[in-house]
Amino acid sequence: MKIEHVFFDLDHTLWDFDKNSDLTFQKVFEINKIQINISDFLEVYLPLNLKYWKLYREEKVSKSDLRYGRLKNTFDAINYDVSDDVIDKIAIEYINYLADFNHLFVGTFELLDYLKEKYQLHIITNGFEEIQSKKMINSKIYHYFDKIITSDSVGVKKPNPKVFKYALEYANADIEKSIMIGDNLEADVQGALNIGLKAIHCNFNNSKNINSNIPTVTSLLELKQYL
């Protein structure tokens, strides 16, 4: 059946979260005079951040727990002494400055121009409501999307079925004529498949142990093969 609605994840799928996040930390650390090698920090922070986001998706930590805990655990692990007040300040400034950096994955504009002529495009994101639209506006991709669904607005997070069902209803989209595209196998792909929504995995890091039955691309422009 012909696809009419394409739902995208935002971070790590269109918006280059890792690159933008790295630049944000450099700025925030400079402002707060944090004397630390950014590479050493990120080596520890990145896996901890993924761990906290998994806990956040599973409703095991709050937004504030995530923002504080990922920083506190990283500074402790690299033995850098910093007060809770400074950690809270860094956490706030990180969110405030994150959308100032607007690197997108290669092919984003070309792909969206191609798809916009053929489909209604939407975003489903677990990112924080107060920053996701700002990221899209500043990176000049906001106008491509008809509906933007955040986990904050739904009250639960991907892969919870309620997010996908809400998105389909909000976009007035038939599940049989819709598809989800994202980088996270658990949140984006399996979450969609669990309710019968087709999905494509953006495996930009060439991760192993990918289910061979799931359509997979290693760059955005490969999506043209499916759409």
TrEMBL record:
The organism's place on the tree of life at top rank = Bacteria
Molecular-function annotations in GO? 5'-nucleotidase activity
Spell out the SUPFAM superfamilies in the cross-references. Answer: HAD-like (SSF56784)
Gene3D superfamilies, sorted: HAD superfamily/HAD-like, Putative phosphatase, domain 2
Coiled-coil spans in chain: none
Q: Which NCBIfam families match?
A: HAD-SF-IA-v1 (TIGR01549), YjjG_YfnB (TIGR02254)
Fetch the PANTHER family from UniProt: PTHR47478, PYRIMIDINE 5'-NUCLEOTIDASE YJJG
The molecule here is called Noncanonical pyrimidine nucleotidase, YjjG family
Species, as recorded? Polaribacter haliotis
**Lineage of the native species?**
Bacteria, Pseudomonadati, Bacteroidota, Flavobacteriia, Flavobacteriales
